[in-house]
Amino acid sequence: MGGTATMAGDQTLLQVEGLSIALPRGAERAHAVEDISFTLNRNEILCVVGESGSGKSMTANAIMGLLPLPHVRPVAGRIVFEGEDLLTKSEAELRRLRGSRVGMIFQEPMTALNPLMTIGRQIGEVFDAHGRIDRRERRRLIMKLLADVGLPDPEVLIDTHPFRLSGGQRQRVMIAMALALEPAMLIADEPTTALDVTTQAQILDLIRSLQASRHMGVMFITHDFGVVAEIADRVAVMQTGKIVELGPAGQVLNDPQHPYTRRLIGAVPQFAPPERPAPAGEILLNVEGLKKTYTTSRGLFVKKREVAAARDITFEIRRGETLGLVGESGSGKSTVGRCLVRLLDTDGGHIRFRDLDFASLRGEALRAQRRHIQMVFQDPYASLNPRQKVGRIIAQGPRAIGVPEAQATARARELLELVGLGAAAAERYPHEFSGGQRQRIGIARALALDPELLVADEPVSALDVSVQAQVLDLLDDIKQRLNLAMLFITHDLRVAAQICDRMAVMRLGEIVEYGPTHRVFNDPQHPYTRDLLAAVPGRDWTIPEVALQDGSPPA
Amino acid sequence: MKPATKDFWRRFLRNPGALIGLLILAAVVLMAIFAPLIHPQDPWRMVQRPFLPPFAVDGFWFGTDTLGRDIGAGLVYGAQVSLLVGIVSTVVALTIGVTLGALAGYYGGLVDDALMRFTEFFQTIPNFALAIVLVAILQPSTESVIVAIGIVSWPPVARLVRGEFLSLRSREFVQAARVVGQSNLQIIFGQVLPNTLSPIIVMASLMVATAILLESSLSFLGLGDPNTMSWGYMIGAARTVIRQAWWMSVFPGVAILLTVLALNLVGEGLNDALNPRLARKGR
Q1: Do A379 and B195 lie within an 8 Å CB cutoff?
Q2: Nearest to B181 by CA among A371, A450, A360
Q3: Which residue range forms the structural domain that includes residue B97?
Q4: How close B17 gets to chain A, by Cα (Å)?
């Protein structure tokens, strides 16, 4: 929990004064960042929070001198670091500063390391870039760093290539590189966003403890208020290029002043699931012993590699019920979803939809029955054909089963009204809509065939938190109104708490826990479920009343 | 699509090379269309004394060839042949290439293996040698030249389209189309193919250029249609007298050069205008 700020003996490390960064002409606004001022002290973590496009990453890049000049350039203000204005420095001077006095870690650990270089050499390059040291001494330092960031067997790891490491381990290597020269300041740009929740908890712990032991100032950029609650000493909230609220973590989180902060915090799903009545509808879908194995053949003489993505999966969904399928990446939850809508063929087990043996349907018979189980996809940018008008995208399902064109188009317009976009949206192309709006279009498409079961595969994980809340409300509302059953696949336990009646926790292709959401959260049986729940960032933080009143998402 | 179309033209015309290419190409096309008006007489007719140098006699700015035929007329009618062969053979190649590439990329597995082995079979034979053999077997005529060029130029199209299909078929919007029950043909033609059009258009413009070069080379060797005056034929016929009469080979040579250059410039301009994401991608 934040708030235990070590404020004593603070000195200012970084001072940003009246910084404005101009965007090229024709961008959606004139300035990426407008007249922002804040300070970062030694030995504290400042969290910069905001939704996408708020200018938080741009601020970090300006400090590091990494703006894409000359298109995007600082036009006003000062960035004073250790007494010197960074904006007046030459590229060569900045280069000396980067790495040695300021370290940076990025969001994507999977692509940030050069796949052809051993871990040791990549970290070694940091030393080389800032003056030579003796090879044996360098190796000793690298091993110590690897041990410091909690990686096992540094003496083996130093000579391995990145592909052998998991995402979390790579992020640790990135942190080791950033800290190699003991910088006074660390800038972390969404460093845990791409990681699983249990890994995220470990990395947050690591950053916390390294910051404390090295008395660093850390500027931590995130969109996630759970992470803020976990790690921040102070918080700056950004909205469209301006800092709207700045203060100690405890104050911002528990007594937000600015309406935007209240709205953002109010949109964070409550961690505690409400008690819900047991669903009473008839059983719509019955999955029994579902199996799916991926086989990679590696040529004639190489042994096949088999990965069981789903083994012996059994659950049922009743009409009017939302079942959450929760797990980390690689747990097989998406595989199960894809088997249900028959994007994948199963390798065993039954999928019984009412009295239909859905898993064994083939060809035309399958095509005729697909309409009953529809899917909402994860990525609102990839799931709509960029070359088709929205009306056509929605109408394509009904038209594929022979509904006359005029009727299908009329239905598409109705559905656009239902999801809150207005019938006129039918005549526009997907790129004219924001992520949240596109996800509404995806929902309308899934509803066009009047399905009885909706499979939603991480439908909100690509969206900003305030938009996420709106889309979740829409899904819940539609489910109630049309009395649908829903399988909701997510990695986010907060989201699951909010929307699911019952949930199934998956790990390595198996369901390890299955029951009413309220029971699973309050009395988890399986150790893995306990680990997952314990890893949710900010689980001890209760969203304040004031945010909940103000924070009801706009219609 | 209106603003997108406008956007496309704005980006295309901002590129000076593409603009020049488009102008040259327009000139060649107009020349081909209005050939009978510019030079009403048959390009094969002998109209002046042979070996007339350029600009020596009014109305014969490009001179005459070894038999006294007007080179200017040859250039104009040659444009017809070059464009006709270039465009039609490209259409032939696109038809074969897009069909095979789409099937291989969409279905994958055994279909892909079979079709790609078939494609490689064509790719391993040198283009020009195969074209010569085909024209020789089919007897030289405009049709056989078109067929030959089409048959030797489709493999790269098939590879390109296959690659695009491979990456597009796993995209979520294609999966969504499967989930709502669209048939494979509906998905291939309605969902995937429209998204592969940009690279196909770019490639097609460059293929027209290659086809014109191939046609010229075939005609140069005397394998063109004996009844049509083409640029390649003119160069071939004039090569023995190149030291006495440079203009007979230089003018058709320049015509080929300009046309091919124009097509390449246009192709490059199309590429930049259709793929602005390559320059500024990311969200």
Answers
A1: no
A2: A371
A3: 2-279
A4: 24
CATH number of residue B191's parent domain = 1.10.3720.10
What is the enclosing helix (H) or strand (E) of A17? strand A12-22
- Closest-CA residue of B relative to A429 is B1
Contact B181 A445 (CB under 8 A): no
The two three-digit tokens of residue B99, written as one number: 């069909």
CB contact under 8 A, A343 and B172: no
Q: Which residue of A has its CA nearest to B196?
A: A387
Q: What's the number of domains chain B is made of?
A: 1
Q: Where do the domains of chain A lie, and which CATH numbers do they carry?
A: 1-101+183-266 (3.40.50.300), 111-180 (no CATH), 317-345+359-523 (3.40.50.300)
Three-class DSSP category at B69: strand
pLDDT at position B144 over 90: yes
**Rounded to an integer, what distance in angstroms lies between the CA atom of residue A81 and that of residue A75?**
18
Selecting from A370, A378, A386 the residue whose C-beta is nearest the C-beta of B180 gives A370
| Contact at CB, A400 and B178, closer than 8 angstroms | no
A385, A438, A447, A464, best to mutate vs chain B, most B CBs in 10 Å: A385
User: Residue A279 — pLDDT band, cuts 50, 70, 90?
Assistant: confident
The secondary structure of residue A277, as a DSSP letter, is P
The percentage of residues in chain A with a pLDDT greater than 90, rounded to a whole number, is 68
| Contact B178/A at CB under 8 A | yes
Q: Tell me the three state secondary structure of residue A25.
A: coil
Query: In chain A, pLDDT over 70 holds for what percent of residues?
Result: 96
Are A358 and A352 in contact, with CB atoms under 8 Å apart?
yes
Q: Write the residue in A367, A375, A381 that is nearest to B183 by C-beta.
A: A367
| Residue recorded with tokens 């293996």 | B113
pLDDT at A552 over 60: no
Chain centre to alpha carbon of residue A103 = 23
Q: Any residues with CB less than 8 A from the CB of A425 and at least 6 apart, and which?
A: A390, A391, A416, A433, A437, A441
Q: What is the pLDDT of residue A350?
A: 93
Taking the CA of residue B162 and the nearest CA in chain A, the distance in Å comes to: 19
Reported ipTM: the value is: 0.82
Helix (H, G, I), strand (E, B) or coil at A503: strand
- Give tens-digit pLDDT for A68-88: 888 888 999 999 998 889 999
